[in-house]
Design brief:
Length: about 180
């Protein structure tokens, strides 16, 4: 066995990525403090051909050196926009027909493994601030709320890890439709 060289991976270039079919999923970063988490989310969105990222509130925006450090160029391929308030993102996405999913530990949240996505629906996933979580007003208006089951002593996962877990879970359940 040997590791593959980058040129053997046959990845598309950013121009081909921009016109390729995307998963009808939007990742919303609700007041994320860490620029490394923002950059890592861009890389995950690129890896799984996510339609768009919406950055809200205090979430930093590209171009920024700290975002680029973990995004490794994904800010050039993934479509993104900035909205000043998380509720603006929620209202826009609702008007565009997205199912709004909060990823949060809430009184009525269900474990992520209980989520059975419909491959014919569009989904927007809200991921919250590293300390305060998803904005309360957003949680009060989501269609559903899911949490990633955890069994250790900590109360949460890193935001970029949570994004990766949720998006991979979606791909597993939908059946990797882009391949």
């Amino acid at each position: 066995m040997r590791k593959l060289k980058n040129e053997e991976l046959q990845r598309m270039d950013p121009e081909a990525f921009k016109v390729s079919k995307k998963m009808p999923w939007v990742i919303v970063l609700d007041n994320i403090r860490s620029m490394h988490n923002v950059g890592a989310t861009f890389r995950t969105a690129d890896a799984f051909r996510i339609e768009k990222i919406i950055l809200t509130g205090i979430t930093a925006q590209p171009p920024h050196r700290e975002i680029q450090k973990s995004a490794l160029g994904a800010t050039e391929s993934v479509t993104w926009e900035y909205l000043s308030k998380p509720m603006m993102a929620l209202e826009q996405l609702l008007s565009e027909g997205y199912q709004i999913i909060g990823i949060e530990q809430a009184d009525q949240s269900l474990p992520l493994d209980a989520f059975q996505p419909d491959p014919n629906k569009k989904y927007a996933f809200f991921f919250g601030n590293e300390v305060f979580g998803v904005t309360d007003e957003v949680i009060a208006n989501v269609d559903a709320c899911y949490e990633i089951p955890q069994f250790g002593t900590k109360h949460s996962l890193n935001i970029s890890v949570s994004v990766g877990v949720v998006i991979w879970d979606m791909f597993q359940k939908i059946g990797r439709p882009l391949l």
